[in-house]
Design goal:
Elements (H helix, E strand, L loop, with lengths): L12 H4 L5 H12 L6 H16 L14 H25 L7 H24 L5 H13 L5 H12 L15 H26 L10 H19 L2 H26 L21 H6 L6 H6 L25 H5 L1 H8 L9
Length: about 350
């Protein structure tokens, strides 16, 4: 169904996305300051934003987009921010600024930014055809030690979303904890199979470095050895913890984006097969990831052009405020199950 777009001669939409940089700025400051400051982003992202999202209104406007350089500038700043966030974590620990239990809080804060900025921006960039942007997206995924998202998201998830062939689609009545295990396991298995098939077609070694999964895993092992040799085990532990937390946040977003929404194999993906939220926090701190319905309906569309559809199922809250319910299965089912359109039941 067509959604009316109101065109305006002036729009501040592209400027609002720069709010996405707040968490990474807090992370860098916290990692360079140590102590309680390492909790800055964790508190901001998972407490302050959750409360703010409940209090702030929604923004349903489709006042369209304007063609300027701001989205690309934001991508460059986001990539730079992720590099500085990881570097500041390493520097803070290796110089003693961050020590003892503060290493854990710093890693979690950094992982929070990696999950809400690096992976979200990577998701945008791997959809781009230009080789430089696409490489940048894969680089961001490398910083969170994720070897499968690039393959699975583009070649499997978008094709099979809402069907039993897609492990990233949460089933009706499935809790987050069960989903995480099934989703990650399924993505790893399917991505490896996909790469083995690609290598076989090109007559390459199925488990050689031409296999994207194998090359990534080999790179991770090299980075781990490098960390231990030059910075020690504490830095390695922090890098691993931030990556684990970031990927758990990725699976949280996967869980809430498609929970309970199914389709038959021959049904075309449309705006009704993904949950949508127009909450201000989710929209602009996650560069409109919450307009996920339009993303799956038009996968090649840039984030700053995504629309809100009145026909799309709407989450009872945004990505920040739905995190706590997702961690409490009975609360999640109570809030969300009744929102699922009847034809999906």
């Amino acid at each position: 169904m067509r959604t009316e777009v109101k065109r305006t001669g002036r729009s501040f939409r592209n400027w609002k996305y720069f709010l996405n940089l707040i968490p990474v700025i807090l992370v860098i400051f916290g990692n360079l300051s140590g102590g309680w400051f390492t909790l800055l982003n964790f508190t901001f992202s998972f407490v302050v934003l959750g409360i703010a999202e409940i209090l702030l209104p929604e923004d349903h406007t489709n006042d369209d987009w304007i063609e300027d350089e701001l989205p690309d500038i934001l991508m460059i700043l986001s990539i730079t921010g992720q590099i500085l966030a990881i570097s500041s974590l390493i520097y803070g620990i290796s110089t003693g600024i961050i020590h003892d239990h503060w290493i854990i809080t710093a890693a979690l804060s950094t992982g929070g930014s990696s999950g809400t900025l690096a992976i979200v921006v990577a998701h945008e960039l791997i959809h781009r055809k230009h080789k430089a942007w696409n490489f940048a997206g894969r680089f961001l995924l490398f910083t969170v030690l994720n070897p499968y998202f690039y393959i699975h998201h583009l070649r499997i998830h978008h094709k099979y979303v809402g069907t039993d062939q897609d492990p990233v689609t949460a089933k009706f009545g499935e809790n987050y904890y069960h989903f995480v295990v099934r989703s990650i396991g399924g993505q790893l298995k399917q991505s490896m199979q996909m790469e083995k098939q690609r290598c076989a077609i090109k007559k390459l070694a199925p488990y050689g470095l031409n296999n994207y999964m194998i090359s990534c895993i080999s790179g991770y092992l090299g980075i781990m050895i490098f960390c231990v040799i030059f910075w020690g085990w504490e830095v390695l532990a922090a890098i691993l913890l931030q990556a684990i937390f970031a990927n758990l946040l990725l699976e949280y977003t996967n869980y809430i984006e498609h929970y309970g929404l199914s389709r038959v194999d021959n049904e075309r993906v449309n705006e009704k097969h993904s949950w949508q939220s127009d909450k201000l926090i989710s929209r602009f701190l996650l560069i409109d990831l919450s307009r996920h319905s339009d993303h799956h309906f038009h996968a090649a569309k840039p984030f700053n052009q995504l629309l809100s559809y009145p026909e799309s199922p709407v989450l009872p809250g945004g990505y920040a405020s739905m995190m706590l319910p997702a961690l409490i299965p009975t609360l999640w089912f109570k809030l969300v199950d009744k929102k699922i359109p009847k034809h999906f039941s």
